[in-house]
Automatic annotation (TrEMBL):
It catalyses: D-ribulose 5-phosphate = D-xylulose 5-phosphate. GO terms for molecular function: D-ribulose-phosphate 3-epimerase activity; metal ion binding. A divalent metal cation binds at H37, D39, H71, D176. This is Ribulose-phosphate 3-epimerase.
Length: 223
């Protein structure tokens, strides 16, 4: 069967009420989220600290079937591959910047039964991540500096997305940071098909309508 691009919306739960992580996550799924984007920060690679594999495992015990992507904003992504696989993560997305042997990390993720996502910060050229496309299932182009929610969208990052879409027509390309109804148009036009949206979805009066708007915009561009 020929692969074709799908529009997938994965809200980041970082901006939700983390004391009600399960309820907030389930609500997002009920409102049409295609997957959950779980931001893991170590206080080292980025200045913030969030949650780790024990919390992801607890969430998985309540939510059996949803697709979990962990966005590992950590200095040593290799350290958490096995624990996150054990916690029930489907896709392990890590930043290439702090890693010496990216190919080795990609291989270990696959060996642990997860999909591979490779991510770059705004200051990292797209050529750096291009080397690893053959080993990965998805590329994440950050549209803000990783580490904090609620930042302003960096439109200049769309050049990276355009480049990847032109050269890799069937690649899953994810964007994350400041993405919402006001910025989804340029993300979709550039060629992103996996959309992470935190504040815009979590804080929306009508999550389902916001998720639908994001998805419909991407579907239109894929057509």
């Amino acid at each position: 069967m020929a692969k074709h691009l799908k529009a997938l919306i994965g809200p980041s739960i970082l901006n939700s009420d983390l004391s009600k992580l399960y309820e907030e996550s389930q609500k997002l799924l009920d409102n049409g989220a295609d997957y959950l984007h779980l931001d893991v920060m170590d206080g080292h690679f980025v200045p913030n600290l969030t949650f780790g594999h024990p919390i992801v495992k607890c969430l998985r015990s309540k939510i059996k079937n949803a697709f979990f992507e962990t966005h590992m904003m950590v200095s040593n992504p290799e350290q958490w591959i096995s624990p996150m696989a054990d916690a029930g993560v489907n896709q392990y997305t890590f930043h290439i910047e702090p890693v010496n042997d990216v190919e080795d990390v990609c291989r270990k993720i696959k060996e642990n039964g997860m999909k591979v996502g490779v991510a770059i910060k705004p200051g990292t050229p797209v050529s750096e991540v291009e080397k690893y496309i053959s080993l990965s299932d998805m590329v994440l182009i950050m549209t803000v500096e990783p580490g904090f929610g609620g930042q302003k969208f960096m439109e200049n990052q769309m050049e990276k997305v355009k480049y990847l879409r032109e050269h890799y027509p069937l690649l899953d390309i994810e964007v994350d940071g400041g993405v919402g109804p006001a910025t989804i148009g340029c993300c979709a036009d550039a060629g992103a098909n996996m959309i992470v949206s935190g504040t815009a979805v979590i804080g929306s009066q009508d999550q389902a309508a916001t998720i639908k708007l994001l998805r419909d915009t991407v579907i239109e561009s894929i057509k």
